[in-house]
Amino acid sequence: MDRCAGRRAEGRKTVKGLRILGASAALLLVLTGCRTIPSDMLPKEPSSSQTPAASAAPSDEPKAQAFAVSFSSEDTLNPYAAKTRVNLDLATLLYSSLTVLDDAFMPQPSAAATVQAADPLHWTAVLREDALFSDGSRITPDDVAASFQLAKSSANYKDSVSNIETAEAGENAVTFTLASPDPNTAACLTFPIVKKDTVTAEAGKAPLGGGLYVFKAEGTAYSLEANPKSGQALSIPKIQLQHLPGSDAMLHGLENGTISFFFSDLADGEILRPTNASTQVPLSYLVFLGVNASRDGLKDASVRTALSYAVNRTALAETAFSGWAEPASTPFHPLWKPVVEITGFSTGENTAEAVAQLEAAGYNTKSDPQNPGKNAKTLELELLYTSGNSFRQAAAELLVQQFAAAGVTVKATALSYDDYTSRLRKGSFDLYLGEVRMTGDMNLRPFLTAGGTAVYGVKTDGAAAAAYSEYLSGGKTLAEFVEAFVEDTPYIPLCWRKGIAAYARSMSRVTPYAFDLYHGIANWSIGG
Which of 74, 101, 198, 289 sits CB 3.0–4.6 Å from 207 for a disulfide? Predict the structure, then answer.
């Protein structure tokens, strides 16, 4: 997540046919401020604040004649150097990878014929014989190893390959050495493969890839054209690229037909209600409640689990996030296939159980009638969140109400981004609202290992961390780990945010998802 330098310009005009929802009694509040989490708690993700400033509404732009999407001609299409979200999203069209994630977040072979573990610390990917770049040359192990090195040093991909130390090219195979065991390593091999002697970071250019499309530039006209070496027939053989890198320009472009497809992760909280066709897109963005286990009252796991019992996650998702979130029932995304059948947290509140656990821990006890106040003990906490974000504000206010029902007094404190991160780093907090973009392998190391980027307040030598290490090394099943996590509750998963994809009404079979906005594009239809 990138730090916002300032608020968006006030008074953004509403685009005809693409309205921004205002505040309402149901807490459908427009976000106009910065994101609310520390920049080191998310992979560095290109955002609109990094893009060139959008010009006025592009009413004089040519209408899209077929299928068109936005990109930045002032940014590179090298996925390891791209600064804009729109260009980075095109990587799945231009480049192949050893594996790809399906809509259940599970790795499927792509340029690799097989991916297997030789032992817990070594995984080998054997390349397909027919894995080709768009110029017809074979994708070699050297190309894969060189691409891995680019991924390790790229802000866009380094988190997804953080547990992989080296990649050694062999005969038609690449062997990856891990820092520690991980049964989900195949999901980390989704980094783009580029031909190593074509790497460029020049604006308006792209390295050679082996994806479904090839980048073409003719003067100021840009497009993606079907890669004849991909072996797939495409229902959309050509994609026009329009230089609309800013969100305002993209909104206008969708409304007037300059582009055919638009995506927003709703990170700034502006909830779109398009007259175009649209669909919710599940994202891997976890909203959670951080708990400082070093504080008195929160050291006890039963108190942390009591707080979790007090939370109604469904209400948070439907009210505070206006339906643009999915309740979290485990530390992992509910669509992730390995946890679909695993029971973890209840998505509704269990106030009675919360009260019972708090009383067992010595809180909410009755006072002695003969000595009023002598035995009374209440839990009083402070909840930090960043100002200028109505999603977070609504969530904080609702959490205060839910905790109050269990007899816990919580004061919600809105802070500037700098003050918020400063207090987290100093450990000067009880609770905080945070958000992390999880990698495809659903790796919890940022939360549960020493030096992780989201370990604020977490005991990395606690029961949940130990159980996670056992799961990764094969000593526990995933269900056993989830059970241990719920019992320890080192932090409280709340919900998973969603984004929106809007597109021309003439289109059908559009199936974007978290790790590939253009998933299934070979079968998308643009109508008559």
Answer: 198
